[in-house]
What we know:
Blueprint (H helix, E strand, L loop, with lengths): L3 E3 L6 E3 H4 L1 H5 L6 E3 L2 E3 L9 H11 L12 H22 L4 H19 L13 H25 L8 H22 L2 H15 L16 H9 L8 H22 L2 H13 L5 H17 L2 H19 L3 H13 L11 H9 L3 H30 L12 H8 L4 H11 L4 H16 L9 H35 L1 H13 L3 H18 L2 H11 L11 H14 L8 H10 L3 H11 L1 H12 L23 H23 L8 H15 L3 H26 L5
Helix pairs in contact: 3-25, 4-5, 4-10, 4-20, 5-6, 5-7, 5-20, 6-7, 7-8, 7-9, 7-20, 8-20, 9-20, 10-15, 10-19, 10-20, 11-12, 11-17, 12-13, 12-14, 12-16, 13-14, 13-25, 14-25, 14-26, 15-23, 16-27, 16-28, 18-19, 20-23, 21-22, 22-23, 22-24, 23-24, 24-27, 25-26, 28-29, 29-30
Amino acid sequence: MTSHVKDHNSGFSLTNHDANLAHQSTSHIDTGVNTDIDVVNDVNNDVDPSVTQAILEKYDRESITRHITHGPVKYFIAILCILYSIFHLYITFNPMPALLQRSVHVGVGFALIFLIFPASKTSSRKKVAWYDWIWFVLSLSGMAYLIYEYQSIVTSRGGIANQVDVIFSIITVICVLEGSRRITGWILPILACIFLLYPFISHLDFMPNRLLTRPYDFGDIFGQLFLKTEGLYSVAIGASVTFIFLFILFGAFLARSGMGQLFNDLALALAGDKKGGPAKVAVISSGFMGSINGSALSNVVSTGAFTIPLMKKVGYHKDFAGAVEASASVGGQILPPIMGASAFIMAETTGLPYSTIALAALLPAILYYLGVIAQVHFRAGRRDLKGIAKESLPRVKEVLKARGHMLLPIVFLIFLLIKNVPVGYAAAYTIGFTVVVSMLRKETRMGFKDILGALEDGARQSLAVMAACAVVGIIIGVVSLTSFGTVMTSSIVTLGAGSLFLTLVLTMLASMVLGMGLPSIPAYIITATMAAPALAGFNIPILSAHMFVFYFGIFANITPPVCLAAFAGAGISGGDPMRTGFLSLKLALAGFIIPFMFIYSPAMLMIDPTGLAVTAKDFPLPSIMSIVTIVVTSIIGVLALSAALEGYFKSDMNLIVRCILAAGALLLIYPGLITSVIGAVIIVAIAVLNTKASKSLSTPSPA
């Protein structure tokens, strides 16, 4: 059975096969000399896979799993995982009542968690502890009870909880909290417990007036959590069972067919020989991987295992090398077509078509990666960092000939989504298409064993998302029961004092504070529930508001003091974690500006909300002139901002010039004719002067 290295921010996992994939890709790189650059033949010696596993275990509770290599328990877990995946494929075409299929998703999912994840770091990883079999049975008991009592609950009792309901609800809540603790760490369960405590004390005299509610009893609270689709089995779990699981399964099938190898080789072929090539390889390969699985830590480990050593070899500082990998990996969750799990949660929460969300995310994602790769390029220019010798790299033609056909499933998926095929159907069809396409080459061909392995991997990799969605369901249930979300929204509006900009800043801070300690999915769900509605009072479209909180919840991964992706990058590079974190923040600065841009200029999201309600689900496209204007000004603005941050365009810039250039970039980015003209004049003037200075420096002095 394959051991798993996972990322608690998205729930997608990296198998030990994938962790070594980056090292295998470097087999293409021979000793090559490009000016003074020596590229060592075997890069795998730089980062041992056991080191990357240790790094993940240090920062990520979810990476600690059992490795049962033989015996009936191994096969029992594998069979249960395979059946779990088959169940989700079945209900895609034969749906059950929402409460029932969500309860099976949660019940079996947590049963698997107690078999796969030990109770603590010191617990045995070779066998399942006796008490975990008790947890296993308890996890299934709530599911079994709901199935048995379903008709009574929805008909004669009308969702009103009795004593037995409360007992099984408490059992299920305890299982959810303990299972989530094992797979995500302490922060999320503790936050859920704080919310769960609130309705028990919200009527007491010491509560502030704004937080006072009527008294609630056990039946009110646990009935809300267990018997309705507004608690444990909320829209978050609905998205997990209907969409997210299938796309994780799709990613598992792609991994089995060698998609990671294709991404790494293609990135090397495209950018390896360019100025500062290895850093650009890191950005491209992490973007490719992230567009499929949206996993920050796993991307840092898999691609960083070979890109970080290469970056260091061509002259990048170890802190900067780790920061490049971290910022590029985090951006994967905002890059279509799949955008990780949160995009599906957004589609379920807002009722917006997934295709609308993916199209809206396209230009902001391109701008984000453009900002990262531009800073990488300018730093390489300032320090005269070369790339890898071209003869040492794979050729694009050879890469596409060997594995290029595995891009077809992604094209097929995009085609289905454009044609408005239901998202679940599109994912299921694409999984089948992936198996068929893999047969075209021996290198990618999937046999029956590989298919079973992908079904098992998909189930394992889905558990983190399921657990996060379930524990957040407790928070959603309490917010729905007590109207706490309305209180939070009104507080933000009050503090914002009628200012859109100030309200945006407060919403940003709330999203980032939550995201620093939470996986991106629950961070988005919580902020979307409590913070995003505050923007409705300013007539901000629901799509823009949710994209805003989505961005800042994700970028908390590279925002000090808690920036797990940056810490993982520093662990591989040997750099200082906090320095790496601040450099990641600098590289990703465009990502912190872009959300403000699309709030003030919705055309960036490819929508025209003029005259539409805040809750509109369908938007016309902006005019061609609006699209061209926003694309040109934002691209030039991001490039200018990157040059200002690095202090280099064609030659070095002093601090004053950098500040003026940054101001010009922001003016150009800000929507408005006058500001754009002023910004453009500043940028052009500095670019011309900097280019002239570069030419004068390169011109030899007369003898």
